[in-house]
Design goal:
By secondary structure, the chain is an alpha+beta fold. The chain has two domains: 7-154, 2-Layer Sandwich (Beta-Lactamase); 160-229, no CATH class. The chain is 39% helix and 20% strand. The strands form two sheets. Strands 4-3-7-6-5-8 form a six-stranded mixed sheet. A two-stranded antiparallel ribbon has the order 1-2.
Length: 230
């Protein structure tokens, strides 16, 4: 699919309820055909003020990531909120669970007639069984490129998603927070801002605390970064 989907069998899909009714049998079919290691999730992104702590509208095989209906979005959901107009469909990318299991994932975003994203259908296949049998069924595994870093993190709550983003941003700087100077801290904030981390409620307060700076200072740094980028 080259562009984000708006159409159902009868035309455009306008509400998350219509989208769920359309996709429910598809979700069941995918989960049943692929098996218990394949999670299929429908995220509700229809609200103009999406609460990323509670986006999961429906889920098949929830044991894969340990999430449930009413559960959170992932860090990719943050990027959607940051730039809704962009192309967000993604196929065959690498994800990981909270306990480190690798996932082979794809996500499709659905828009209404006005172009607003109302939902996302995500398929996450736990690769653990395939990895255990790699010698026999290696052809079923996705190609391994030079970049093995996870693109998406699945966690039971949005705070864990923020923690993962923060640790990744710190790792990219290459030094512990205790040794960071102003420039290093701004690099961490810039990375988190680009990833949409500050769409999470109270995220600036939480990140500033972990960086050892005040919330006022964090906002000042972010303002400086955003002005420089504009």
């Amino acid at each position: 699919m080259s562009q984000q989907s708006t159409a159902g069998p009868g035309g455009t899909v306008e509400t998350i309820e219509e989208l769920q009714a359309l996709l429910a049998p598809v979700m069941k079919a995918i989960a049943t055909a692929v098996g218990p290691h394949c999670e299929v999730v429908l995220h509700d992104l229809s609200s103009r003020h999406v609460d990323l702590r509670h986006t999961i509208r429906a889920i098949e095989n929830p044991q894969v990531t340990g999430r449930s209906v009413g559960g959170p979005s992932t860090n990719l959901g943050l990027q959607v909120l940051r730039d809704e107009a962009a192309e967000h469909n993604a196929f065959g990318y690498r994800g990981q669970t909270e306990d480190g299991r690798q996932l082979h994932s794809s996500s499709v975003y659905y828009r209404n007639a006005a172009g607003h994203i109302i939902g996302a259908l995500c398929v996450n296949v736990d690769l653990t069984p395939l990895q255990h049998a790699q010698a026999l069924i290696g052809s079923l595994l996705p190609a391994t490129g030079s970049d093995t870093r996870a693109k998406e993190t699945h966690a039971p709550d949005i705070a864990t998603v923020l923690d993962t983003l923060f640790e990744s941003a710190v790792d990219a700087v290459g030094k512990p927070v205790s040794m960071m100077d102003r420039s290093d801290r701004m690099d961490v904030l810039a990375t988190l801002d680009q990833q949409g981390a500050f769409e999470i409620r109270r995220s600036v307060e939480l990140v500033s605390r972990r960086l050892g700076i005040s919330k006022v200072t964090a906002y000042a740094y972010l303002d400086e970064l955003r002005k420089a980028a504009s």
